[in-house]
What we know:
mainly alpha; Methane Monooxygenase Hydroxylase, Chain G, domain 1; two-stranded antiparallel sheet; 6 helices; 29% helix
Amino acid sequence: MKTNEDFDNLSKEIAKATPSGVSRDSYNPSNTAAAACPKVTAGKWEAVSSPLPATPNTDLCSCMTETLSCVVADNVKETDYKAMFDFICGESKGKYCAGINKNATSGPYGAYGMCNSKQQLGFALNAYAKAVPNGCGFKGKATSKAAVATPSASGCATMLQAVGAQGTGVVSGGAKASGSAASGSAAEGAAAGLSAPSFSGVFGLGIYVVGAVASGMAMVLL
């Protein structure tokens, strides 16, 4: 293999360097102050430092899924999730999606906003189905299942109690966080947002409410 001229030039310059190391035990940084977050300025920096998104917790997502009595049908493609999210999150000023809300500009964040897209849609479907007669239909895209009142897995009861039925509470720092739960494959959708879950992107509930109203989202899915 023949190297080009730039490689030789780089090699010569590297040879001129005479770095000197510092013993780890002797390292004493002078600037230890934490950098301050930029001021929130419209159009420049709009993300606030508080509140922050929930810590990824696959255990919490699994616990929540066990308690659902209405979930996404297994034969539904992720590309179909968007219409379902748009409809449900546009109803009743978005109250059915409070637990999966993700608004990186001002918050709030739902406790399940870091779950994967199917789990998030299941949460929203379940909330809608509980409030609307025959709400677990969606032309076969949703299905009923036996819900577990209290999952037996360790820590489930404590975590579910902390986040509450609406999914807007916070799991204490002592609860086990077992890694990112937003592991679903990427797909377009309303819960897309911080994880566009894989919809992992910014899920601003207001956007969906306004969008649903503006586009006349009176589509009948039931």
